[in-house]
TrEMBL record:
<dbReference type="InterPro" id="IPR051922">
    <property type="entry name" value="Bact_Sporulation_Assoc"/>
</dbReference>
<protein>
    <submittedName>
        <fullName>Cell wall-binding repeat-containing protein</fullName>
    </submittedName>
</protein>
<dbReference type="Pfam" id="PF04122">
    <property type="entry name" value="CW_binding_2"/>
</dbReference>
<dbReference type="GO" id="GO:0030288">
    <property type="term" value="C:outer membrane-bounded periplasmic space"/>
</dbReference>
<keyword id="KW-0472">Membrane</keyword>
<keyword id="KW-0812">Transmembrane</keyword>
<feature type="transmembrane region" description="Helical">
    <location>
        <begin position="12"/>
        <end position="32"/>
    </location>
</feature>
<keyword id="KW-1133">Transmembrane helix</keyword>
<dbReference type="InterPro" id="IPR007253">
    <property type="entry name" value="Cell_wall-bd_2"/>
</dbReference>
């Protein structure tokens, strides 16, 4: 028999339970802080050690696979949905031109790092990193989580299938066709081909290493030509701009004939990025180059064209790579997409080229005051076998501001 006294007892019990639940919920909202740094990372061994100075940070691993993983970990913590990539870009570590072409895929909507595989297998450390990242999938491309680029075999595809990882493979018979395939793929995702296109002769592809940072930051086009011809695939890609391409040429006249330049002019406006005497000067030329003009969009959405970093003052981020370490150069372009945007500058193992020194003197911060002080920062990419600690120390000095006595 239910009595008033029994109901009062039950009401008190319910009230106490509700009070306890309310206190627990209040605690969770006000005091609980999830420890994201305690998440286990299978590929953490990629960080062999870190050398940090006041103005530089070195990122590297035991080999180029792990260096790319270290860059990926710096750019994508993958602790929750907002800092995960949409996909991973997987490149054959023996194909430099494929890597250079793939850099523009880093930009949105793919929004992911470049990692390296062998032609017929994915190294365990790379596969572990893909699993750690757990890509969300490209919404506009059937939620694919990996983009395979270029010369990668069927066994890699089977490996991804066995792991339940969705992928797309962009294939070309040569770098010219692969460039067009990437160009068309991104045009499909974004609704149109980018009017701005960077052009480099394949005979001097190292001149394009510094370009990868810009393509990763903006998604602008990149295509290869040869010294004496405009390959059919490159020509088809330029035709898709309907005579309104803005082409920016890398390199020097030693590897680009006048006839090839005339062929390019049929498809739009052609400008040469300065500093083509060597790869170091070319990177500097790209860092301070800026082209502004009208273009882009219909009358209801007209906006100015702006191409190039145009960095000629202090307060910026720079990436330093040895051009002999092309894997690190290409992978480091991820850092211009995620984090502080900035150009790639090229250095030697034991010295800083004069063209780079002169440029760093121009952008060197001056001593102002606490709240208004401008700072530069440099990412040093690769091992001491590629960039020595002495060069890192010298770069730290160039990037710092000189205090007044």
């Amino acid at each position: 028999m239910i009595t008033n006294e029994l109901l009062k007892k039950r009401f008190k019990v319910v009230l106490i339970v509700e009070g306890i639940l309310a206190l627990v919920i209040l605690y969770l909202f006000m005091f609980y802080q999830p420890n994201y740094t305690n998440i286990k990372v299978n590929s953490s061994e990629a960080f062999e050690k870190s050398i940090v100075t006041g103005n530089t940070t070195r990122i590297y691993g035991k080999n180029f696979y792990e260096t790319a993983i270290a860059i990926s970990q710096a750019a994508y913590p993958a602790t929750f949905e907002d800092n995960k990539p949409n996909a991973v870009i997987l490149v054959n570590g023996e194909e430099k031109n494929d890597g250079i072409l793939s850099a523009r895929l880093i930009d949105h909507p793919i929004n992911g790092p470049i990692l390296y595989a062998e032609k017929e297998s994915i190294p365990k450390v790379t596969l572990d990193e893909i699993k750690r990242l757990n890509p969300k999938g490209i919404f506009a491309d059937r939620k694919n989580q990996v983009i395979l680029v270029g010369n990668i075999g069927d066994k890699v595809e089977s490996q991804l299938n066995n792991e339940g990882i969705k992928f797309r493979h962009l294939i070309g018979n040569d770098p010219f066709e692969l460039g067009r395939k990437i160009d068309d793929y991104l045009a499909t995702l974004k609704g149109n081909h980018k009017d701005s296109v960077i052009i480099a002769p394949i005979e001097m592809s190292d001149y394009a290493l510094s370009e990868t940072a810009w393509s990763a930051n903006t998604g602008d086009g990149f295509l290869f030509i040869t010294k004496n011809s405009l390959p059919k695939s490159t020509e088809e890609a330029l035709k898709s701009r309907h005579g309104k391409a803005y082409m920016y040429l890398l390199g020097n006249d030693k590897f680009i004939s006048k006839d090839t330049k005339k062929e390019l002019l049929k498809y739009g406006h052609l400008q040469k990025i300065p500093g083509g005497k060597d790869v170091y000067a070319q990177a500097v030329g790209f860092a301070n180059y800026n082209d502004i003009g009208k273009n882009f969009g219909w009358w209801i959405n007209k906006r100015f064209r702006r191409f190039g970093w145009g960095i000629t003052e202090a307060g910026h981020n720079f990436i330093f790579v040895n051009p002999k370490d092309w894997h690190s150069a290409v992978a480091s372009s991820t850092l211009t997409h995620k984090g502080n945007h900035g150009p790639i500058l090229l250095v030697e193992k034991d010295s800083i080229p004069d063209s780079v020194k002169e440029y760093l003197e121009v952008v060197k911060p001056i001593d102002t005051y606490g709240q208004g002080q401008l700072y530069n920062h440099g990412w040093i990419i690769g091992t001491e076998d590629m960039i020595s600690t002495k060069v890192q120390a010298d770069l730290d000095n160039f990037l710092s501001y000189e205090e007044e006595d």
